[in-house]
Amino acid sequence: xxxxxxxxxxxxxxxxxxxxxxxxxxxxxxxxxxxxxxxxxxxxxxxxxxxxxxxxxxxxxxxxxxxxxxxxxxxxxxxxxxxxxxxxxxxxxxxxxxxxxxxxxxxxxxxxxxxxxxxxxxxxxxxxxxxxxxxxxxxxxxxxxxxxxxxxxxxxxxxxxxxxxxxxxxxxxxxxxxxxxxxxxxxxxxxxxxxxxxxxxxxxxxxxxxxxxxxxxxxxxxxxxxxxxxxxxxxxxxxxxxxxxxxxxxxxxxxxxxxxxxxxxxxxxxxxxxxxxxxxxxxxxxxxxxxxxxxxxxxxxxxxxxxxxxxxxxxxxxxxxxxxxxxxxxxxxxxxxxxxxxxxxxxxxx
Length: 350
What we know:
Blueprint: E1 5-10, H1 14-25, E2 30-36, H2 39-49, E3 53-57, H3 65-72, E4 80-84, H4 88-99, E5 104-107, H5 113-132, H6 136-148, E6 166-171, H7 175-183, E7 192-197, H8 204-214, E8 218-221, E9 227-228, E10 232-235, E11 241-247, E12 250-256, H9 268-278, E13 283-287, H10 296-304, E14 308-312, H11 322-329, E15 334-336, H12 338-349
Parallel strand pairs: 1-2, 1-3, 3-4, 4-5, 6-7, 6-13, 7-10, 8-10, 13-14, 14-15
Antiparallel strand pairs: 9-12, 11-12
């Protein structure tokens, strides 16, 4: 067994610091080296304790998590997992924090804390393990590329009535910024896009709204029966699988609450397998940064069905898990850095 992952907890609540310390310490591979009540104390502890990963409260009175990350990351980039409250303000700050460099986030239980807390701690321990392997150089490179990339302008054009092409995208850890980086380069008349980004219920609607502000295409959280059509991007809602089905001459999405697949709901595997089955060679599959193997088998199914596929490369992935397994299985026709994926998708669509 290697050295334990050294974790610094930052939260203004003494009770939360105590709960997180106890919950994380239940994992023998995690060592809580300190707990800070605010970013000012955290700054000193980072220098003194040299933690591998930091958990950071989203909303704090003296300086919120975003402002702290904006000050910290340029000088001292490190893996950070946000601990977020499920409020509109909390969700907004969480996505701002992801943009500022946080690797991932967990949501505090808002109801039935007795049942929700153990689940949250299990998720947090898992994400700390993933964060400890995060490639922070990839985040810095993506940030530079995103700032330099030309941004498509949203127009008021009507959505196309039909599409015979579909782009399916799957992502997990580090994916919020990777997804944004890819789709903001899509023109307003790009074929319909369907996305699974691992994210809890309550956050995907806000994430879709955030993407809609950045993109030339229309972005919305998917609802059952929504049409997949040119000019529109549909994001799987948290805690629901998303499938593409063909009805006559059009594609629509179906939502389901069946068991988790590859440990996730929504699952990239479920989406990709449905696209392989229903769309076949008229699809493009894209697998981006993320821990685990979700979507690897589905990407292979898409490729075997005649679809074009591309996986994000190791150098630009925050966590090279899902793309790595997809490549090893033979599901990736191409492997490319993040800033090339949008143009490769356009090339595939010909």
